[in-house]
Amino acid sequence: MARVERSRDVSAGSLPWLARELLRVLPASRRAEAIDDLLDLHARASASSGEGAAGRACVREALLMVAWSAYESRRRRRESRPMHHPTRKPAMLADVAQDLRFAVRALGRRPGFALITISVLGLGIGANVTIFTLADRLFRDAPGGVANAHELVGVFRSWGVPDAGGSLSYPDYVDYRAATRTLSGLAAFSSGTIAATARVGGSSAPARLLTVTDNYFRVLGVDPAAGRFFRPEENRTPDTHPVAVVSWRYWMDRMGGAEAAPGAELVINGQRFTVIGVVSPEFLGLSPASPRVDVYIPIMMRNAVAPASDTAWRERVASMRDRWVGVIGRLTPGATVESVQAELGPVATRIRETWGGDSNESVLVSAQFRWYPGTRASLSRLTRMLLAAVGLLLAIAIANVAILQIARASARDRELGIRAALGAGRGRIARQLLAESLVIGGAGCIVGVALSTVAARVAAAWLPVSIHVDALPDARALLFAFVIALFASVLVGIAPAARGAGRDVLGLIQGRDRHAGGGRVRDGLVVLQVALSLVLVAGAVMFARSLSAARSVDTGFDDRGVLIVGVNLANHGYDAERGRVFLREAIDRLTALPAVSVATITRQVPFGGDWTTDLAEWPGADFAGGRDTLTAGLNVVAPGYFEGMGIPVLRGRAFDRSDDRGTAPVVIINETFARLAFGDADPLGLTVPLRDDWPPMLIAGVVRDAKYYQLDEAPWPQIYAPIQQFYMARVHFLVRTEGDAAALARPVQRALLELDPALAFEPVETLSAVKAEQVARFRTTAHLVGLTGLIALFLACAGLYGVMAWRVSRRTRELGLRMALGATRRGLAADVLGNGLRLAAAGVLIGLAAALLLGRLVEGMLFGVHPRDPVSLLLAPILLVAVAAASLVVPARRAMRVDPLIAMRAD
Amino acid sequence: MARTSIGEFEELVLLAVRRLHREATGGAIQDLLRREAGRRASLGAIYAVLDRTQRKGLVESWLGAPRAVVGGRARRHYALTAGGEQALSESRRVRDALWRASREAAT
User: From the CB of residue A659, how many other CB atoms can be counted at a distance below 10 Å?
Assistant: First the structure.
């Protein structure tokens, strides 16, 4: 059978090419017969009127065969349809289906083209779906298990800085809760979790605790999966109601699930608690970045699980200065964020007037209860910027595919001409081209979504907060992908469709129309691509520079060769007395270790916390600008700290062993504290009131500023107190060595375990790793924007290459003619190069203007680099033009190699 | 069976098939129509009519014997069925009746 087919094809060889091609379109049942008849016709006609006329006659017959065949099959379909459904719609649907089928076939014939366009669009769509998914997770997703999340509001302390908001003190919370009428409930929770050890039955395991007010679950509208939640009386007085609520997961994993009824006993850090309820399995915390909580206990029971903690507990609960609770409320029907703000504002003023405080201090009510306002602002800046970046990338991808489509459409002039000759209307042809774009877009959508499932998880790991991203995209992400894919398809399809419609049909078939149309659109698209990618490349260069600036920033301390080992003595039954002894002995042992040059203790690890304290104005202080409080960081350290950290002492002295319980309390301050509190006066010998009920502490020295909380923070006032005078149970041992700090981890832990074999360590890390983690924040943007910029650069240059290569191939005849008339090869190559570079230059200029305008999108995200950084705005164009020139080399060389004879003979 | 009415071009093609008597192929029909009826019909149109009349059961087709030349192949031939004969005579009867009627009216 196959042989017979071949022999037919061979014998059909005397027919003109176009006729043979046309016959392929006929149904197979008819093809053989048609070939035979045409062969007969051709033989007869060439005998009577010559070969050329016979060929033309055959083409004409073949054309009409195709037309009739199409007409008949449509007619047959119409006839076979039941007569009582003569609606227009099914016919249109059938047309659309046919268009799509045809488009799939047409693309299948050019797999290379399909592969490139689908991957390019897929890349653009995937990048957008990725960032969209992240933004959704960060800001939109309602926390699971929470009823009517839109009614919840966060209540924060504000201090007159936009987007700034922080924790409240417990008395603040009590006042707001008593005063509010616009909120049906106001709940508080400790802003951090407590790492504890919990014993169930006979086995102990670590558990993460959150302390909450009695109404926490009621305000959130979370249901118990078993038992009940707290009652008001259970959070009224300290240490009186040892009741606990456990998470679903903890209940299932640690307490045997359904069999263990509420009423079970849970021993947390040695204190017996009764489990009264289990949280609904959907509730995993308020914010997507919340750590998993195992056990909830009343705030008033906090002291029971962490006895002898850093500050006396009763003092902390009562203190107006310690801000440590997060507060969340539920709106009554009809109330709004504004009405709550209007109600609580005067309460905040009253509190401030009663207790004193900064004049711009107030309360901030926000519908964004998932994040602290500052975190939310920086995350939303980040996602906005990333959305803009991937939006640009999508635009570049669309322009790129549109260029390819136009080039391909013009290569298909003849095919389109034939279709027009067969009676396909302009609309029909435009629709056909659009259908191809839709198929590309649809496939790109699938590729993009698949890409985003991987990319979203990678990008989520790069985010400054850790969030969980599901393996599969949700309905919203899919809808978003679909919408942008449709949008991209239409944009990609418009240019070739508009071009395909309304052309000189005969000209198209005969290839006369080769130089007309599309050129300007294509040039425009190339310029657009270059401009957009310049913006992204400039951004990428900026973020790369920002990252390198963050890497080389002066932190004020020397992070090399320092190991940090954290312990919490409160969890091991130490009171302050025994704790002091243990710490002193521990330092002695660690100092004695070989290779250790300094061993000391610090409460805080750089970038590790935000334990600040407010100091009211005191005699001798000289606050500038009418301020009456100074918010300073407080760290408690052992002798040797400044030496161990490499922080130079500028005046006075560092701590030594004489700073003990029996001697006069002393502190050391940093330069910024000295400047803000005392101006030009010499602070040595002056005093600082660290706590209301303590004697003022003498300033013994001034040390250099360092970074305490963030890499990019402005110089911040800091106080250091000696640990023997200001005991803290949760501390870090800090060990400096000349060699490899990580190698010290085992010897250091062994030495500490010799003192107390029961000691448990918090994660052990090196100071340089801690710093690297900070730098990672700037790596997020550097990586994401860098990657986007790289893809953009590649796409833009591929687009430029494509257009110039296409143009050279189209201008073969002209180039050949010019060469025949005496143009040099070098001249022709320069012509091509010049043309391409002119397009690139136009794009660069537009892109520079856009980059200047878009600079504010990256404000606050850069480290030590201005949003209109001249170096980046200079480097990016150079880079872009260089790569563009490289991509023009091939077309230019091709132009040089044009052979005038062959070129003139083409066609 | 319902009577099948045929159009003018269909009638011409059927007559050609009848005239060619089991030797009808697309090309032969085209040739005959040009010579005898002075009609220039495209092969496409003739195929369309042959398809249509075949579906209506007026024409049948079969592959003939391969031609006795190098590479010669079997060709598709067409012939009228009884139904086709009947449709042609019906068409003629209607015409004749109308002719007669118009002649009587004219005199």
Answer: 23
Tell me the C-alpha distance between A236 and A587, whole Å: 41
Task: Tell me whether residues B27 and A36 touch, CB distance under 8 A.
Answer: yes
Distances (CA, A) of A578 to A569, A575, A601: 9, 6, 16
Residue ranges of alpha helices (H) inside A275-372 are: 302-305, 313-318, 337-355
Q: What three-state secondary structure class fits A412?
A: coil
User: Could you give the CA distance from residue A199 to residue A260 in angstroms, rounded to a whole number?
Assistant: 14
Q: Report CA torsion sign: B3, B8, B10, B13.
A: positive
CB A730 within 8 A of CB A310: yes
Q: For residue A679, give Cα distances in angstroms to A616, A675, A683.
A: 16, 5, 9
**Residue A225 token pair:** 């999966």
A180 CA to centre of own chain = 37
Direct distance between the N- and C-terminal alpha carbons of chain A, in angstroms, rounded to an integer: 37
Q: Is A263 left (phi over 0), alpha (psi -120 to 50) or beta?
A: left
pLDDT given for residue A828 in this prediction: 84
Angle between helices A825-854 and A870-896 (to 10 degrees): 160
Give the number of residues written for chain B. Answer: 107
Nearest to A286 by CA among A174, A380, A169, A149: A149
- Of all residues in chain A, the percent with pLDDT exceeding 90 is 23
Q: How far is CA A744 from the centre of its chain?
A: 36
Q: Are strands B59-63 and A718-722 parallel, antiparallel or unpaired?
A: unpaired
Please give the Cα distance from A532 to A393 (Å, whole number).
8
Q: Which of B45, B71, B73 sits opposite A68 (nearest CB)?
A: B45
- Which range of A576-580, A645-649, A901-905 scores highest in mean pLDDT? It is A645-649
With a CB cutoff of 8 Å and minimum separation 6, the contacts of A202 are none
**DSSP three-state, residue A114:** helix
C-alpha A822, offset from chain centre: 58
Written as six digits, the tokens of A743 are 């190698």
pLDDT value for A868: 85
**Sign of the dihedral through C-alpha A131, A132, A134, A135:** positive
Tell me the per-residue pLDDT of A811-856, one tens digit each, with 9 for 90 and over.
Answer: 777 788 888 888 888 888 888 888 888 988 999 999 999 988 888 8
Q: Find the residue in A nearest to B24 (Cα).
A: A37
Considering all CA atoms of chain B, what is the largest pairwise distance in Å, rounded to the nearest integer?
63
For tokens 């090196």, name the residue. Answer: A766
Nearest by CB to B27, from A11, A37, A60: name it. A37
**Which residues of chain B have a pLDDT value below 70?**
1-4, 67-72, 106-107
Q: Indicate the DSSP class of residue A150.
A: G
* SS3 state at B72: coil
Question: Chain A: nearest CA to B57, how far in angstroms?
Answer: 15
Is residue A205 within 8 Å of A268, Cβ to Cβ?
no
Pick B47's closest partner by Cβ from A11, A30, A36.
Answer: A30
Task: Please report which confidence band the pLDDT of residue A77 belongs to, taking 50, 70 and 90 as the band edges.
Answer: confident
| B27 Cβ contact partners less than 8 Å away, ≥ 6 residues apart | A36, A37, A40, A41, B43
Query: What residues contact B43, with CB distance under 8 A and at least 6 apart?
Result: A34, A37, A38, A41, A61, A64, A65, B26, B27, B30
pLDDT classification of A185: cutoffs 50, 70, 90: very high
- Per-residue 3-state assignment (H helix, E strand, C coil) for A661-672: CCCCCEEEEEHH
Q: Which of these ranges, A384-393, A399-408, A612-621, A626-635, has the smallest mean pLDDT?
A: A612-621
Query: How far separated are the first and last CA of chain B, in Å rounded?
Result: 38
pTM over 0.80: no
Residues of A with a Cβ under 8 Å from any B Cβ are: 4, 7-8, 10-11, 30, 32-34, 36-38, 40-41, 60-61, 64-69, 71-72
Does residue A632 sit in helix, strand or coil? strand
